[in-house]
Amino acid sequence: MITVLSLGGSIVAPDGVDESFLKSFTALIGELLARDTERRFIIVVGGGGPARAWQNAYRTVCSNPVDEQADWIGIMATRLNAQLVKAIMGEWCTQDVVIDPTQVEPLMGRVLVASGWKPGFSSDYDAVLLAERFEANAVINLSNIEKVYTDDPRKNPKAKPIDAISWADFRALVGDTWIPGKNVPFDPIASKHAAKLGLTVICAAGKNLENLEHILTGQPFVGTTIS
């Protein structure tokens, strides 16, 4: 069984690297691999704090910033974070970090780590393409939010959490346009392709590793299912 995890950069490196989380996350992955010798993981890593900081610097310093350049800056942050995760996974991850999800080789080890690809797409989109490539039926999207809300709860106190939502309704919430650094539960371009594939996406709080274990072992969990 192959499980695709879209691991938000806001968890790996909200500002600096969250070493405590990475240690606990790696321990959980190891435990799950030991329990089931057929299990494999694909982990797509986002840019997080470093991506936003460097993108903001570019937009501040440059008098005429271009979205494509901001995107490349974010992509480089995802590659740094992904290389760290690959190194931590050690012998489980025998292949190089995937930087192009359309040109990936068959899965050789027990873990495959991927980063951002090219401008116009987020790491969420890469996760969807990899799920398609390896015929996974779901992507678990791990970020710093517990559930998807009807609106931004930081701005709208009346926003309500959602347990389950259709792709049509979710896409109405997030729109159709990708902007580098855009803060949405799952990126609009990725959402469009996931809907086309009939893929299920589960959005959950990445640092709640007990909850993540529940998702991965088919137990009741806290999060939002998009399908």
Describe the structure.
This protein is α/β, with parallel strands linked by helices. The chain has a single domain, classed as Acetylglutamate kinase-like (Carbamate kinase, 3-Layer(aba) Sandwich), CATH 3.40.1160.10. The protein has 8 helices and 9 strands. The chain has helices spanning 9-12, 19-35, 48-61, 67-89, 123-133, 167-174, 188-197, 209-216, and strands spanning 2-7, 40-45, 111-114, 138-143, 148-149, 161-162, 164-165, 200-205, 224-226. The strands form 2 sheets. The protein has a 7-stranded mixed beta sheet, with helices on both faces. A two-stranded antiparallel sheet has the order 5-6. Helix 5 runs parallel beside helix 7 (188-197) and helix 6 runs antiparallel to helix 7 (188-197). It is globular, with a radius of gyration of 17 Å.
Short description:
The chain has helices at 9-12, 19-35, 48-61, 67-89, 123-133, 167-174, 188-197, 209-216; strands spanning 2-7, 40-45, 111-114, 138-143, 148-149, 161-162, 164-165, 200-205, 224-226. With 227 residues, the protein is of the alpha/beta class. The longest helix has 23 residues, at 67-89.
